[in-house]
Amino acid sequence: MKITVLGAGMMGRAVAFDLEKYSNFSRITVADKDEQTLQSAKIFLKGKKIDFAIINVNDSKDVRKHFQHADIVISAVPYRFNYDMTKIAIETKTHFLDLGGNNDIVNKQRSLSEKAKKNDVTIIPDCGLAPGMVSVIARDIIDQMDSVDILKLRVGGLPIDPKPPLNYQIVFSPYGLINEYIEDAIVLDHGKITEKKSMTEIETITFPEPFGDMEAFLTSGGCSTLPYTYKNKIGCLDYKTIRYLGHCEKFKTLLDLGFAKEEKIQVGDQQVAPRDLLASLLLEKLPINGKDVVLVKILSKGMKDGKNLSFDYTIIDYYDEENDITSMMRTTAYPISITAQMLEDGVISRRGVFCPEEIVPCTVFFEELKKRDIQIKKEMK
């Protein structure tokens, strides 16, 4: 089988790295529209048996041509392209996976499930960290209980050596970060799905040293379809982002001042979008690609055989110094690579559009993460 990875940035090259190391694909191709980005990826992946190609994801004919030459396509490009590429994947009978990032687009993809099934195609959005890995963990918890009263998802990508003022570093697109902070969070509350303002409901969450007390607050996108999938199985479900103490208040001040607005404003003789300015300043002023850590804590309470039961899952994953791969790359790219390899091996064989909690087998998934030294600590109480 042949696989193509769209996007040669941080996530795309980490996907290719994992595919080359663990998969049996006869050909792995990394495609990007930017020659400089491709060249950087070539240097990073030097010595790997990987092909490289130019693609313009804005050109549907070019996209269709690349899809026709692949059995599976992984998208590591911005989420706005995912719906159109899903339609092309169904037309060309190419399995398609992406990293998600926007609930509305995922819902549009899911509306194509019958067409995908008819064309013998599997489409899996939301295959990264959150949504993605945490979605599979949520499924694992639900499978072990008769009923789940509370499910709390807490995830954060952070610098190991935080620097003021924000104690944060750029671990993925600054636009993606801004979207997480300004779009409403989806919360499940006893059968009712509601929206709440992001960057609210701050709580303290504690990890082993050297981290200690951290803060967590509501953000958008992380639970994606989980509230809908498990509307009748979970009492309360929410997703919060983990940061160092004080980050939320400082960043929210910027948003309250209007720095996330997309509408252009007049500044001197220039028309400037405040969001573009904020994204540029974040890239200029914050560290990029430094040593990082991903912290995950998933807390649950429920019932099994008439008894109270709780499961706590914890992940503390560090930057890979040997291969120069950040923890955010590891925990985002490896899950989608693993899922694609399950399609390759026939472990996943259902056809249609499914999110990870609906189709990814938990035990096999966790075993594959363990091979990559992504350790999930599980406690039952």
| SS class | alpha/beta
Distance between the termini: 44 Å
The CATH topology of the largest domain is Dihydrodipicolinate Reductase, domain 2
Helix proportion: 25-40%
What is the CATH C level class of the largest domain, in words?
Answer: Alpha Beta
Work out the radius of gyration: 20 Å
Characterise this structure.
With 381 residues, this protein is an alpha/beta fold. It has 2 domains: 2-125, NAD(P)-binding Rossmann-like Domain (Rossmann fold, 3-Layer(aba) Sandwich); 133-327, Dihydrodipicolinate Reductase, domain 2 (2-Layer Sandwich). It contains 14 helices and 18 strands. Strands 7, 8, 9, 10, 11, 12, 15, 16 and 18 form a 9-stranded mixed β-sheet that branches. Strands 3-2-1-4-5-6-17 form a 7-stranded parallel β-sheet, with helices on both faces. A two-stranded antiparallel ribbon has the order 13-14. The radius of gyration is 20 Å and the shape is globular. The mean pLDDT is 95.
Concise structural overview:
The chain is built from 14 helices and 18 strands. It is α/β, with parallel strands linked by helices and 381 residues long. Strands 7, 8, 9, 10, 11, 12, 15, 16 and 18 form a nine-stranded mixed beta sheet that branches. A seven-stranded parallel beta sheet has the order 3-2-1-4-5-6-17, sandwiched between helices. It has a two-stranded antiparallel ribbon with strand order 13-14.
